[in-house]
Amino acid sequence: MQSTRTFTDKLFLILKGLGMGAANKVPGVSGGVVAFVAGFYEEFIYSLQKVNGKAFKLLINGRFKSFFYYINGRFLSLLFFGMIVSYFSVSKILDYLIEHYELFVWSVFFGMIIGSIYYINKDFKDWNSKTLLVLVIGIIIGVGISFLDPAKENDNLWFVFFCGIISVSGMTLPGFSGSFILILLGNYVLLLVDSVNALFDTFSDLLRGDFSFTANSERLRMIKVLVVFTLGSVTGLVTFSHVLNYILKHYKNITLSAIIGFIIGSLGVVWPWKKTIYKKDEGIYLLDSTGEKIIENYQRYVPKLELETFYAIAFILLGIVIVLALEAYGKNTRKQHA
Known about the structure:
338 residues; mainly alpha; two-stranded antiparallel sheet; 16 helices; 4 strands
């Protein structure tokens, strides 16, 4: 599987990683949807579930080449490389666009999710009482999550580890946004802003040969939080992949109908016409470590028929076109590998 990849395939894998990384960071958008629509979701889950006891035996015995081949390492390394690069590049551009063109960015994402629903549903022919029931349950869960009130920030390390496990659901389960779930758990700023900034500052200090951060208790606390969060994320990624690989093999139709339900339900989170509600303390906005206001939730509304609304609808159509283009590429890739 690995050796047949052309240079173009490898380049596109990195680009897919960029897409997944950017989607995972945006509250309400799921990187799993990118994987699903771009046609590499099942290979992604299959590769992750190869990180098992046999893989660790190969690693411990020093059989690195066999380990790399066994876990489909070329695929995973290119994909994760794209995600890491995305976190420090594409996602920063997205942050800027959301700040200055929020309505249009959410409109593109809304269109992409509509396109994803069409893409998954068009090839799904096994609708019956069971799959329809699971679809409805999936929609209810997805919509229900979008209207929950967020909890308060909690830096207890066991809870941080749990947040890591839950947050990767957006990567492995299309329709579930790990970032939005972190907002609901109260730890989005702690885990995806403050701790990441602490790591970035630490690397900067190390490159300058400055070790004064070792005396900074707050910096060390943030690094510890990030390490525990990362361990939780890895645990969740491997665990979810094993579970999903099993249910995709044995209950594929029910799993796909649930995924369609989750994605339909997630439309409530990415509804373009919404006002961002920021956290306040006695009327004063709370700021994160970068000086940005902290998102608490969103207040949704029905738009007026004005020029800006028609622009937003055009961006929704652009989002649908992007997904259909991804689908066409995914189909072509699958034909080549077949």
